[in-house]
Amino acid sequence: MNRRKLMASLAVIPAIGLATPVFAQEEPLKVGFIYVGPVGDGGWTYQHDLGRQAIEEEFGDRVETTFIESVPEGADAERALSQLALAGNELIFATSFGFMDPVINVAAKFPDVKFEHATGYKRAENVATYDARFYEGRAVMGTIAGRMTESNKIGYIGSFPIPEVIQGINSSFIHARKVNPDVEMKVVWAYSWFDPAKEADAASALIAEGVDVILQHTDSTAPLAKAQEAGAIGFGQASDMSNFAPSPRVSSIIDNWAPYYIERVGQVLDGTWESKGTWAGIAGGEVEIGEITEAVPAEVKEEALALKDSIASGEYHPFTGPLNRQDGSEWLAEGQVATDEELSGMNFFVEGITAKIPE
Amino acid sequence: MIDPLSVFLLLLSASTPIVFAALGELVTERAGVLNLGVEGMMIVGALAGFAAAHATGSPFIGFVVAALAGAAVSMTFAMLTQFLLANQVASGLALTLFGLGLAALFGKPLEGIKAPAMVPGPLRINWIVWLGIAMVPLIWWFLNRSRAGLILRGVGENHDAAHALGYPVRIVRITAIGFGGAMAGVGGAFLSIAIVLQWTEGMTAGAGWIALAIVVFSNWTALGVLAGAWLFGGVTVLQLRLQAAGVAVPVQFLSMAPYLATIIVLVLISAQQKYSRRSGRAAPGSLGQNFYALR
Amino acid sequence: MWIFPAMVLAGALGGWAWGMIPAMLRNWFGASEILVSLMLVYVAQKVAAWMAFGPMKNPEGFGFPGSRNLQQYPAASNPELIAGTGAHWGVVAAALAVLATWFLISRHIRGFHIRAAGLAPRAARFAGVRPETLVAFCLGLSGACAGMAGLFEVSGPAGQITDSFGSGYGFTAIIVAFLGRLHPVGILLAGLLLALTYIGGELAQLTLQLPAATVQVFQGMLLFFLLGFDLLTRFRLQRRITA
């Protein structure tokens, strides 16, 4: 650590206990982050931290970023958020769903501090929310999966039965079916975002069921390692996982928070920030498709990229009718597109998936 | 339908980290020491093993280094409990905290690197899996048929008596703690080198705690550890297999079941010992108690 | 008005009942209370997870796991008593618990029995102390305390039951008890010390940009030293004179 930083850190200490930041004009904008995992998790938190680094790179001396990592959801989160606010951060990013209520509570106590909460649905005057349309990426994965499977069985390792994951399962299934009407989808729930041993077991269970393409919604590389052993293929999740390329990792779905973070910090700097809910996808650069490797035939790659482009241009929505619910009742009529409200509360599988969502 | 053999083969490899860690803890506990730091030793082993395997390109050297690292970090616990007479439960918890932090700190440069490939052994199953299974009869033999094992059990049952008979209680216990650390280290390294093929912070994700439960379930026998590891691992593997086959399963209840089974086993064995005064063993007599020679 | 006190009572009762499981298994069958309660930790976690995904799931929560947030129901919440301090009713209750435990252990005959049974079980038995009663009393009481601690968290800072509720506070409490040398006031101080390392750890991340792992290592080492040097307070070092 250099001397300037040390001085800066000493300067913070007297500021603790004051609710409002002092000298906001002269000083660089302080941006705080609270992470649910360690920055070294190679997945969710790692990607958010890349976003933080992108802010520093973009704005240089005009911003100063700090983070607190591995904060458990629940009681500890509120304390950590208060500390970030007390330390003079004017913009705070809370990057896990479980931080939702703590953010709302702390935001009420610090009306001058702006909060950004990832993946939640509660907003306030000074609390904005943001999320990424991961299902758009899943549509591309589903297309590749449907084309690549030889056993016509694809597997999905779910973390928790929440709307984001259910969207992902539906989206990948719909698009796999579109290119391969015989495809079947097997779903297992790991009940964890990160548990390598269990994820490996989940992948093995799918492989033993005859699955040869695995989509994962959990963050470790264990399913890819299992896929490699069994000669199956899979996709990187959250981060690129490119060290498993070209096979078993044939592509990946990457969370890229940098564009959003840079945009929002810029808005705070020029005074145009306001609370809103942002749900961007491939078009906004939030959801990236990692390089499709040579293990995928060229025409499949082309088809996948074409789908990606049509989603990016807004020409195509992955949830476009006709689509029925699992029980056969009609959900979307021909040409009808799912609304964001429907998607953000999604709690059913589409027709054709045989697995049940656990109650 | 679900083919039992495939479930079993899956189970063999899935339960290996826990088999190692639990066998190590078994020996430690039979010497009368309750080390709750298994999770911490496992993750240190996972990191050290991965680092060594990556640096040398040899998974085998990785496992050796993991064993050494696990044993080394367990010596802090040995120091505290055997020389400084600190409480074993608290020291073990501190060891877990320390190990998790230490591994995370030193693991930073290794993030995102892939482990070197391993040559599979018989039945396309990793050699380490077979080694874990081979350790079961070896440890059984050591505990029940060898003189050294007899002394170790004596120390664990009644350290005052063992001391009076002239056995070096402290040395026996330190050795047992070190062995437990080495085994936990290998178990952790199996996760990073053979299952995930990558180092990630916090990758043991509670495996050490399961190993502790299995030792209780095993009624402190080597064969029981294997049965316990297969039961605990089996429940997970089976519920995932059922899910994959499209059967709805009550996951929370299923994953609770092995722990309830452990309590029932513990109660049955204790009751047998209490009321019949014959056979049946429960926890080693001096488990968790510190020893100091009065003279 | 009465809802929150009733919740505290129910929390204590729940903790007491959970604590009585190892106590009774110990008394009836001689099963080790350490091991039984260790196993019960996992069972309790699964029960909480089941509740968060099942019966207690917030119907307005868009399918996310977790109960309704109690902070939005003033009658059932445990708010900050003094704004900005984070102090809630749990702080008051903890202070009272320290006093009550001190009185129990140092001034009450039952506390004397507990200490006697801890130091010399056989002697205590001869003096007419029934170990079964003590086991049930102590485990039940500590269960009730732990239950209240959980309730104050769930109704206060955490606000809701989630699948990850708990995050290791119970194990930290064991460390605190030993650091406090099993004395109520010592435990209060040890609790404050550990809390300081948590908060200080976050501050260190913020101001010095240390990774969380450094803080964890520091905590581990702090505990090692404190536990290790406890020896010097309990034993006197003596130079052995060899003739």
Automatic annotation (TrEMBL), chain A:
Keywords on record: Signal
Record domain ABC transporter substrate-binding protein PnrA-like: where: 30-315
Keyword Cytoplasm included in the entry's annotation: no
Signal sequence bounds: 1-24
Lineage: superkingdom: Bacteria
GO cellular component: plasma membrane
Name of the featured protein: BMP family ABC transporter substrate-binding protein
Species, as recorded: Paracoccus methylarcula
Automatic annotation (TrEMBL), chain B:
Top-level lineage group: Bacteria
Membrane as UniProt keyword: yes
Transmembrane segments: 31-53, 60-80, 86-106, 127-143, 174-197, 209-233, 253-271
Residues spanning the signal sequence: none
This protein's UniProt keywords: Cell membrane, Membrane, Transmembrane, Transmembrane helix
An example Gene Ontology CC term for this record: plasma membrane
Coiled-coil boundaries: none
Membrane topology note: Multi-pass membrane protein
Localization per Swiss-Prot or TrEMBL: Cell membrane
Gene Ontology MF annotations: transmembrane transporter activity
Principal cellular location given in the protein's record: membrane
PANTHER family: ABC TRANSPORTER PERMEASE PROTEIN, SUGAR ABC TRANSPORTER INTEGRAL MEMBRANE PROTEIN-RELATED
Protein name: ABC transporter permease
Organism in which the protein naturally occurs: Paracoccus methylarcula
